[in-house]
From TrEMBL:
Manganese found in the keyword field: no
One GO MF term: proton-transporting ATP synthase activity, rotational mechanism
Listed name of the protein: ATP synthase subunit c
Localization annotation: Cell membrane; Membrane
Organism of provenance: Sphingomonas jatrophae
Span of domain V-ATPase proteolipid subunit C-like: 9-71
TM segment ranges: 6-29, 50-74
């Protein structure tokens, strides 16, 4: 395998993380809604954790996208 093919294969594998981040964000919101429906009085106190989980999942997705772009255009 030549270097160009390996670079593009690595970028494609890194881009999978962006799709998995969407699953992670959906999971975060689904679990929050599940917990809020079970105990509505505690939903307000858990909203901060919801946004932290959302930000963490999006950060990992953006990081995998940046790595894919770096592999394609810089390496």
């Amino acid at each position: 395998m030549d270097a160009e093919a390996a670079k593009l294969l690595g970028a494609g594998l890194a881009a999978i993380g962006a799709g998995l981040a969407a699953l992670g964000v959906g999971n975060v919101f689904a679990k929050f809604l599940e917990g809020a429906l079970r105990n509505p009085s505690a939903a307000d106190s858990q909203q901060g954790r919801l946004f932290i989980g959302f930000a963490a999942a999006e950060l990992l997705g953006l990081l995998s996208f940046v790595i894919a772009v770096l592999l394609i255009f810089v390496a």
